[in-house]
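Lay summary. Proteins are chains of building blocks that fold into shapes, and those shapes determine what they do. In this project we predict the shape from the chain. Here is one chain we studied, written as its sequence of building blocks.
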Amino acid sequence: MKCIYCNHHHTYSLCDGLKKCAKCKRKFSPKKQLFIQNAIELFCQNTNALQASKILDCSYLKISNIFGRFRHAISVFLENDFESNKGKIVEYEEFVYTLNKKNIYETQSILCFSDNQTIFTILMPSIALSQKLTSDEIKKFFLFHKFIKLQSNQTKINEFRSFFSLHIKNYRGVSKQNLFYYIKELEFKFNYNEQERMKILSKLI
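And here is the predicted shape, written in a compact code that computers can read:
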């Protein structure tokens, strides 16, 4: 088994079940690594935390925290990718997402960029807070954006918007504080297929 830290090919087993690298001398748990790899596979297959906790026979809190680590790592990866490729952007569009349909003020604006192959997103401040709109003004804002949506051509951005609308429903009760990470997860899953996701995430964790 290769070392998870330096990728050295020679490791040896310890009496407590851990492995120790012959080169960097660091220890790691093969059992823990197998658990993480299984969690990565489930995450990349769009398995939610509750389902994953049952499959892996662990607590919901444990797998939820691990999925949270995945989302954080993905977000850093995507932000760096955007910085490297923002000069290739050919189009952008804005759409809105309401966290709570009963409260019109809990509405977030999402900027979506495309280079015709990859989607990049930026979460903007809430519409009510950033623009200090009244309730009537926000309703007019929604009507305007519905009109734009109907008039738009079929683009990569529209594909992502449909993908986002479909999959964000799988996350029940997304908080305002965590919305950024869920958007980044969906951006990641839209841009990469399952095998690509697993390969990238395995390197990030």
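What the prediction tells us: Residues 75-194 form one domain.
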